[in-house]
Amino acid sequence: MTxxxxxxPRVGHVGSDTTVLLKRSLRHILRSPDTxxxxxxxxxxxxxxxxxxFGSAIKVTGDSYVDYLLPGILLxxxxxxIAYTAFRLFTDVSSGIFExxxxxxxxxxxVLWGHVLTSLVANLVSLALVMLVAxxxxxxxxxxxxxxxxxxxxxxxxxxxxxxxxxxxGLTATSVDGVSGFSYPLIFLPFxxxxxxxxxxxxxxxxxxxxxxxVTSIVDTIRNLFAGQPLxxxxxxxxxxxxxxxxxxxxxAMRTYRRKLG
Length: 262
Known about the structure:
By secondary structure, this protein is mostly helical. About 75% of the residues lie in helices and about 5% in strands. It contains 11 helices and 2 strands, in the order E-E-H-H-H-H-H-H-H-H-H-H-H. It has a two-stranded antiparallel sheet with strand order 1-2. A hairpin with a 2-residue loop joins strand 1 and strand 2. Pfam families: ABC2_membrane.
């Protein structure tokens, strides 16, 4: 594979260039760990609020509302985290370092992949923090090793899909408010799904939307994996949504990136 930056060709250096830029982004996060903490605060606050304030009034299958609620909170954690991905990319673009990278002998795709992999690492840390709080609140799982790996795989696919989606406003936004605001609909979407309450009690139009949007199938699949329950066809719907969104977001992000370079 040959990638050209300026007039200097790069042959087979995408991996090493991406690693260098990944380390750069991770160093920025390590110098400002409050980014990850802030990302986890909102989902943890929701977890505490819904379990200890509303949990006794919500009827769900199973004995523990925290077990029912956690999968949706994990998706909200990812949606909160990718806003910082868009912001970090926007900062590079607006500060001029983005153009500086393009003039250096590095693979062009490495610039984006450095941000994408940083987002994946940061979000996995935030998800681990939320999981620890859930365990302290009484969350228990009957899942085996394969089920836990299945949960991890779905969360990784979901994170990558939203991260590539975040690349688009990161490259095109003209203000901090614009780059941060795109994540709000993503955070709101789980509220119209099976993440907080079963869909059976919703009005028909709302129920139809809740049952046919991606969050419900992903949440239900993760919930069944945690509970050690049969997955049925829901797992294929969830994987279809994750992979489909990932491919679409990647294609749109790369198209936006090429236009930005042009």
